[in-house]
Write a structure and sequence with these properties.
Strand content: 15-25%
Structural class: alpha/beta
CATH class: Alpha Beta
Number of strands: 9
Radius of gyration: 19 Å
Number of helices: 8
Distance between the termini: 29 Å
Shape: globular
Largest sheet: 6 strands, mixed
Bound molecules: adenosine-5'-diphosphate, magnesium ion
CATH superfamily: P-loop containing nucleotide triphosphate hydrolases
Order of helices and strands: EEEHEEHHHEHEHEEHH
């Protein structure tokens, strides 16, 4: 692993009201790969994303350590280049708008484009994802959860990001829709070479998507490795428990 990786976190420690939320977390996301962070609820995964996106940390949070995105501090990186996708996609969109307006917005904010060019880019990307053009006139609150998650990925792609941070993007979806969104995530990684950091509590999902995985428990990274190695030869007790719990349920993929 080199210093040149798109995301580099070293010894990140975060305390909130004297509670240790992140305990000396170090991780890297390699260029063009999908890196996973897996851990149960409350282990600190979303907090890492908030640090990377430079957002929403409570005022009394104390942070130490190093976070570099393309060698710079998160606050010095144009937001366009690092796009988030969250569990609840509706929070991304303005409920009163139709899809066209929702997709025009990121293009207006981030690029200097004519109206024609904006609409051309939107129509092109919809074709790429087999979404009918007439969907553009539909109010955003009439799309299903799965459709909205696909659209929030499309919205992120319109910004032409180099990194996408995904926080439980398929956790709220039915299994069939999950599979469709997983295929889209794989596709944008392969076809567009976008570096993805993918957070999930679901080892099945992580195992079909990620090449490398960090296992988190109670604010600490307890294990790291290639997904095949983690699944076949877990070393940490918590990782073993995660994998055993997987064997007890139906394996979906
Ligand atoms: N704004 C906050 N105020 C107090 N505690 C918080 C806040 N945000 C997160 N936490 C605590 O930080 C820990 C990690 O949370 P989080 O990063 O959301 O975990 P995960 O995403 O892995 O479920 C949890 O114990 C949670 O209760
Ligand atoms: Mg979370």
């Amino acid at each position: 692993m080199s210093q040149g990786n798109p995301i580099l976190i070293e010894n990140l420690t975060l305390t909130l009201k004297k509670k240790l939320i992140l305990d000396s977390v170090s991780l890297q996301a390699e260029k063009g790969k999908i890196t996973g962070i897996i851990g149960s609820s409350g282990s600190g995964k979303t907090t890492i994303f908030k640090c990377l996106l430079n957002l929403n940390l409570p005022k009394d949070a104390k942070m130490e350590g190093k976070i570099l995105i393309f060698g710079k501090k998160p606050k010095d990186i144009p937001r366009r280049l690092v796009q988030p996708v969250f569990q609840d996609p509706i929070s991304f969109f303005n409920h009163g708008w139709n899809l066209r307006k929702c997709l025009q917005e990121p293009l207006k904010i981030n690029f200097k484009l004519s109206k024609e060019e904006i609409n051309f880019r939107i129509e092109t990307i919809l074709k790429e994802f087999s979404i009918k053009e007439k969907a553009l006139e539909q109010p955003i609150n009439r799309f299903s959860g799965g459709e909205l998650q696909r659209l929030s990925i499309i919205r992120a792609l319109l910004c032409e990001p180099q990194i996408i941070l995904m926080d439980e993007p398929v956790s709220a979806l039915d299994v069939i829709i999950q599979e469709e969104v997983i295929e889209i995530i794989k596709r944008i990684n392969i076809e567009k070479g976008i570096t993805i950091l993918f957070i999930s509590h679901d080892i099945d999902v992580v195992s079909v998507l990620c090449q490398n995985v960090y296992v988190m428990n109670e604010g600490k990274i307890v294990e790291y490795g290639e997904i095949t190695k983690i699944l076949d030869k877990p070393e940490n007790t918590y990782t073993k428990e995660l994998i055993d719990s997987r064997n007890l349920t139906d394996i979906k993929y």
